Amino acid sequence: MNGGTSIVFLIADDHRCESLGSSGNRDVRTPVLDALAESGAAMQGTRIFGGMTGAVCAPSRACVMTGQSIFRSMIGCDPSVWAHSTDIREEAPLLPERLRAAGYRTHAVGKWHNDKRSFARSFDGGDKLFFYGMSDHWRVPVQPFDPSGLYGKERERIEERHSTELFTDAAIEFLEKQDGSSPFFLYVAYTAPHDPRTAPEPYASLFDPERLRLPPNLLPEHPFDNGDMGVRDERLASLPRQEAELRRHLADYYAMLAHLDAQVGRIVECLKSRGMYESTLLVYTADHGLSIGQHGLMGKQNVYEHSVRIPLLLRGPGIVPGRKLEALLSNIDIAPTVAELAGLPEWPEADGISFASLLREPAGGAVSEAEAATRAEAAGRDHVCTAYQDLQRMVTDGRWKLIRYYRRESDGVGTDRLQLFDLQADPWETRDVGSDPDQLPVLLRLARMLESWMTRHGDPLSRVPILNIIAPGGNENHEDI
């Protein structure tokens, strides 16, 4: 490939969709990302496919890079090894691997929480590479690029710059060496705003906890056992949750995001100064969201909107600016879309679908949510689903959302029950209407969607009926589902 659109792909760790100014959050400060949304497209209906481990970032990043479901892309799909494997199957092609084969220079910076073999076949360069899930942001163990692909621990060195600045510096160093002779794929994977949330000043003091608006779904504790109540993330704050403590967590989270936003701004300014901004496809997303007190939870080990809905911003050649769409998407759709925007052939191995047509439509005014939903449905998405371990599954059609919880017999954790939310009337998921007899047709319809999705993707729980349990309020024994 002699031509081709260069790509800067940015992925954050724990950034939920709600925590952007462009998403309507009036407290968080993300002017750079908001400007990207305004000058490009904000795909606000994007959810993650899920994960079979509490470290959701590893399977989620595998979904983003392969365009495949976790049940196809990840080696660890046997329940006995779900909690241990981060490996990507050798037969699963990755986005940078395909771009590299097409003539792109592929360069990585930052976090790669999957196996080193999949990294080695994807990238021909890189720096400040981090092969773990998390670390002290001020003491980051990183490695330079290893042509052998082995990345032995003895090559690590501790960097004592803040991780977000460390990774941004390395990204800019790469960009400053590009002369435009060949297209590149620059992958920058941040560890922010993941805890420990220790932003540098002046960002650390930017938000007064007492002045922050709190979401209406804060609870002192989750009302039932969701199957993973003792995971590390849930121990980051006291139980029952205390408002003052949650305010401090939220202030620190926003501080990390404000600092991250400023560092993304440095990359944008570098692209502009080198005359590459208008010709480069810029993508910003995250591996998953985070609770921080919502529903009485702290982590991402759940399938509520705050944890499964992620930012997805795209700006570049051919993308109509100012497009904010609620079209239903999964993070397995990102790779085939970026591949199409880069001019690569169709991706038959992908489970995801390309939504490039939603970005390339001729400008003609704002696109209504109804029109966006119609277009997305025509492209194959009238619902999206998320899996979490063998404990939770969810399906949403954009308005209605069904969550199925499972009790794990091997250790007795979890609860056999359902939740049903009307996201249009109740976007914070505060009112479970699953016991309303009038909503039984909705329950049945969503349950069929979820059952079909689980069967299609080879979900090991597909053999367990969705509605063959006692739902809150007495909807029970629907043997047909």
Automatic annotation (TrEMBL):
Residues 7-343 form the Sulfatase N-terminal domain. InterPro entries: Alkaline_phosphatase_core_sf, Sulfatase, Sulfatase_CS, Sulfatase_N. GO terms for molecular function: arylsulfatase activity; metal ion binding. It holds the Pfam family Sulfatase. SUPFAM superfamilies: Alkaline phosphatase-like. Keywords: Calcium, Hydrolase, Metal-binding. It comes from Cohnella fermenti. Belongs to the sulfatase family. This is Sulfatase.
